[in-house]
DNA sequence: GGGGAAG
DNA sequence: CTTCCCCAACGCCCG
DNA sequence: CGGGCG
């Protein structure tokens, strides 16, 4: 049996299963605290102080234009993260952050910051680590609530880049990420690769959820429920990436070196390593249009889908209509032993 | 973006 | 008080 | 070891 046929057969089965479940499962998820939030910052004052979670927080440079082509300011960005906080927090709460800072907007100089030791307010939780680069003990910042989310945003972090694991179980990711990074590809090819990944995972009865990256690609998340370590997540990602690549060799690649990819889409599974990150769900991106990494229904992942359709201007409206459709990634993790057995029986290991 | 030194 | 300057990642992988 | 990579 070749892998494609196996996927086809199982596609039919799983489609039926999903249809039956749909009427039961399609209840809209209620996100606590998300109803009718007022705006956090007024449209005029350049500096404003707000008490959030008991902390007096000062927000500065609020009229600084972060997205010049779209005339979106730092104030707009902070108001967005305030509004989206109830939706984004379940995915970032208690996760150490890689800060990707744009203090002068998306066209200004940018830098990464991991260590916030002695720099963040004392109420911002941190996670200690040792840097082998310079032999010093340092601390990641951790988002724990609305205040710490807004704190990192106020530093110019347009993107929210959380670890896949929480401080409680730092070695055990909540999910495995398949990151589709197109190069000289059409977006239809990205969609095709995502749908093939979905079919393949359906065939081995592994749940998966898709979102736009907000940039050019798509992210597929598989719930791991902190049951395994990063090495296991990465190796599972590698197996899936190889299977997808084997079926779409014409336009995908799993080569790490860019020049070895010859313009093909990179199926990036290496973000499933300790401390590696991608922009989380509902994160803004430092790109023209002020796009948002937006969770999708699988039936939206088809030609016609456009990443630029999901932006700071409409993300909250979509959330109010649809609710949070990404909660599945927070569900119970897959059974890796069972899954590996299914892969072996269907695809010959 | 923020802190500290210099002007 | 304003202006200037400086600082703000990391670890794996491969040749 | 240095450079590429995301
Ligand atoms: Mn990507
Ligand atoms: Mn990537």
Report on the structure:
Helix 1 packs across helix 4 (187-203), helix 2 packs across helix 3 (146-154) and helix 4 (187-203) crosses helix 5 (230-247). The protein starts with a helix and ends with a helix. The protein contains seven helices and 15 strands. Helices cover 30% and strands 17% of the residues. Strand 3 (65-67) and strand 4 form a beta hairpin. It has helices spanning 3-25, 74-92, 146-154, 187-203, 230-247, 315-322, 336-347; strands at residues 48-52, 55-59, 65-67, 72-73, 95-97, 99-101, 111-113, 126-130, 137-143, 175-181, 209-212, 218-223, 252-253, 265-268, 295-296. It has 349 residues and is α+β, with helices and mostly antiparallel strands. The chain is globular and about 60 Å long. The strands form five sheets. Strands 13-14-10-12-11-15 form a six-stranded mixed β-sheet. A three-stranded antiparallel β-sheet has the order 5-9-8. Strands 1-2 form a two-stranded antiparallel sheet. The protein has a single domain (3-347), classed as DNA primase, PRIM domain. One manganese (II) ion (MN) is lined by residues 179, 181, 213, 217, 278. It binds three DNA strands through strand 7.
């Amino acid at each position: 049996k070749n892998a494609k046929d196996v996927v086809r057969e199982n596609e039919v089965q799983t489609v039926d299963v999903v249809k039956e479940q749909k009427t039961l499962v399609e209840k809209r998820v209620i996100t606590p605290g998300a109803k009718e939030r007022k705006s956090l910052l007024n449209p005029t004052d350049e500096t404003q102080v707000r008490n959030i979670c008991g902390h007096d927080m000062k927000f500065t440079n609020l009229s600084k234009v972060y997205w010049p082509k779209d005339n979106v300011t730092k104030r707009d960005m902070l108001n967005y993260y305030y509004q989206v906080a109830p939706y984004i927090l379940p995915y970032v709460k208690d996760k150490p952050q890689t800060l990707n800072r744009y203090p002068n907007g998306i066209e200004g100089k940018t830098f990464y910051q991991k260590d916030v030791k002695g720099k963040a307010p004392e109420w911002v939780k941190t996670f200690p680590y040792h840097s082998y680069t310079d032999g010093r003990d340092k601390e990641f910042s951790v988002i724990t609530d609305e205040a710490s989310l807004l704190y990192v945003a106020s530093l110019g972090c347009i993107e929210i880049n959380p670890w896949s694991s929480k401080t409680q179980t730092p070695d055990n990711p909540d999910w495995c990420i398949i990151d589709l990074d197109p190069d000289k590809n059409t977006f239809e090819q990205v969609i095709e690769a995502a749908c093939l990944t979905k079919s393949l995972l359906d065939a081995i009865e592994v749940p998966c959820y898709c979102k736009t990256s907000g940039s050019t690609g798509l992210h597929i998340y598989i719930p791991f429920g902190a049951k395994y370590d990063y090495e296991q997540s990465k190796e599972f990602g590698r197996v899936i990436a190889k299977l997808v690549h084997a079926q779409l060799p014409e336009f995908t690649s799993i080569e790490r070196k860019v020049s070895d990819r010859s313009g093909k889409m990179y199926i990036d599974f290496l973000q499933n390593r300790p401390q590696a990150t991608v922009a989380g769900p509902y994160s803004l991106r430092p790109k023209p249009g002020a796009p948002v990494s937006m969770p999708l229904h699988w039936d939206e992942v088809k030609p016609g889908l456009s990443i630029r359709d999901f932006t700071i201007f409409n993300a909250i409206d979509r959330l109010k209509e649809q609710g949070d459709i990404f909660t599945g990634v927070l569900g119970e993790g897959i059974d890796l032993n069972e899954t590996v057995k299914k892969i072996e029986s269907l695809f010959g290991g």
